[in-house]
Amino acid sequence: MSDYDVIVVGAGIGGLGVAGLLGRKGIKALVLEKSKMPGGRAKTRELPGGWRLDSGTHCVDNGDKSAAAQLLKKVGKEIAWTIPLEGVMLYDNGKWLNTADYYNLSDKEKKDLAAFENSFLTMPQDEIDRLDKVSLAQFIKEKVTSPKIAEYFSVIGMIQTTLSKPEIISAGEFVAIFQEQLKTGKKSGDFGNVKMPLGGVGKMTGAQAAAAVEAGVKFEYATSVKKVIASKSGMIKIITEKVEYSAKRVVMALPIWEMVKLFSDDDEALPKGWLKHMKTLVDETSASIGFTLGAKKALFTEPVYLSAWKIPGVGLPLQIFLHTNFDKTIAPPDHMIAFIGACCTPEQARDEKFCKEVWGKFWETLQKMFPGLEENVVWKYDGNMVGIDGLGRSPGLTGKYRPPVFMKEVPGLYFAGDCYTGRGVGMNAAANSAMLCAEKILSDMGK
Fold first, then answer.
1. How far apart are CA 340 and CA 310, in angstroms?
2. pTM
3. Residue 202 phi/psi, 5° resolution?
4. Nearest Cα to 217, choosing from 4, 435, 373?
5. What crossing angle do the helices spanning 171-188 and 136-143 adopt, rounded to 10°?
6. Residue 3 CB burial class (10 angstroms; 0-12, 13-18, ≥19)
7. What are the distances in angstroms from CA 168 to CA 67, 135, 165, 285, 394?
8. Domain residues for 294?
């Protein structure tokens, strides 16, 4: 079947964004999605009892000013957003402290921190590009003398990227995200302006899917792609369980670890060594071990992100997002949904024995952090996740070093999502990638 100008494989934020943008330009597009619903790793599921559960934490840096919001506007949609996140609180010896009290900086350290943050705001793009190959650890070592400020930036980098240590975080991406937050904060009066789609992330992906349908894009859900055969000239083939499609232009809107499964090593149209290289990136991603739970009452009432550089008894960085502190529509009245994770490596997240040990120690610690937790739990899922934020924001994998949204050796083969070119974390990276990919396709088509 070759009735389409473009076929998009994957209906996550990247795929939905590309399809919607192309559809609005009159391009005949088809989206193939293995799931029965759109969203990819950004879905909301209805649970019995009035719970609406997102597939993980979906905080959006810059909220209604973000790339994700900009993409929605480009396809003619807007959504409601939650109240903003009001900062980070850190755990210390049985107490949750705001960052000012936790670090207790001296006047000199406060002045140094302000100067350092101001340098992010004014840093030119070529310097950020250079820092894309430098680790956050090295950057901090060269620029920071205060151990407190060093830890502060390490914690912020961990929260941004879900990567467990500054040695594997790109300084360029850290500065780029921080810079955008500072710019947005100066305009809105709220640093970072971190918000969530009101009603769950499915409100965002549902709006994207609706926009694409309204623009004439066709969707085939519950359609699993088995193989993609590239071509340097002519049609690219897509083989599903039931139908074989072909098109001059195909967008692989899948994370790398799924995308590489669909190409063959003996595909002569692909550049030599490309697939082998892409396979080396499969484990270059973020991972977490932890819990998703619903509780009878709030464990904590402040609209903040909760963290710790090292979880007592576990030794891994902590991330806690209490979703219902920002959105009361997703749970029964006065109840709470909490996403609680320990950042780790993909190898650790896949190690069954390691996960069981972490779950046990982690749960014991959480009961100390939140007295009465056990008796308030309505439901709880123990989880381990690999591939939270797509391709990791590590040195040499951000900015211009990220896999591009097109393959110059195979005209007609494109890529979109949070594993490809596009600044930001998670949904913003996917949205930026989608806009870049659609722009490239339209340019190639002379539109």
1. 14
2. 0.95
3. -60, -25
4. 4
5. 70
6. exposed
7. 25, 6, 6, 10, 5
8. 285-389
pLDDT of residue 189: 45
372, β-bridge pairs: none
Helix residue spans in 215-263 (DSSP H): 256-259
Q: Do 236 and 302 belong to one domain?
A: no
Partners of 30 in the beta sheet?
A: 7, 218
> Mean per-residue pLDDT for 91-108?
95
β-strands 236-240, 225-229 pairing: antiparallel
Q: 155-203: per-residue pLDDT in tens?
A: 999 999 999 999 999 999 999 998 988 877 655 445 558 999 999 999 9
Q: How far apart are CA 193 and CA 85, in angstroms?
A: 7
34 CB-near residues (< 8 Å, 6+ apart): 222, 223, 224, 225
Q: What is the mean pLDDT of residues 12-25?
A: 98
Query: Has residue 248 been placed in a domain?
Result: yes
Q: How many CB atoms lie within 10 A of CB 381?
A: 10
Determine the Cα–Cα distance for residues 384 and 356; give it in Å rounded to an integer. 10
CA–CA separation, 54 and 41 (whole Å): 9
The b/e string for 6-30 (b: 16+ C-beta within 10 A; e otherwise) is bbbbbbbbbbbbbbbbbbbeebebb
Torsional sign, CA 11, 17, 19, 24: positive
Distances (CA, A) of 281 to 237, 298, 410, 428: 24, 40, 20, 20
Place of tokens 């996550």: 12
Residue 110 lies in a domain: yes
**Considering only CA atoms, which of 29, 323, 298 is closest in space to residue 202?**
323
Look-up of token digits 């840096």:
61
The closest of 250, 243, 286 to 270, measured between CA atoms, is 250
Q: Enter the tokens of residue 408.
A: 């110059």
Residues 438 and 416 in one domain: yes
Position 181 scores a pLDDT of 82
Give the residue from 188, 219, 238 where a domain finishes.
Answer: 188
Residue 43 has φ and ψ, to the nearest 5°, of -120, 160
Cα–chain-centroid distance for residue 310? 22
Residues 242 and 170 in one domain: no
Q: How many domains does the chain have?
A: 3
Number of H helices, E strands in the chain: 15, 17
- Which residue's structure tokens are 């399809």? 19
H or E element: which one contains 434? Answer: helix 427-444
Identity at 7, one-letter amino acid code: I
Q: Considering Cα of 127, then 132, then 136, then 139, what sign does the dihedral take?
A: negative
Please say whether the beta carbons of 340 and 320 come within 8 A. yes
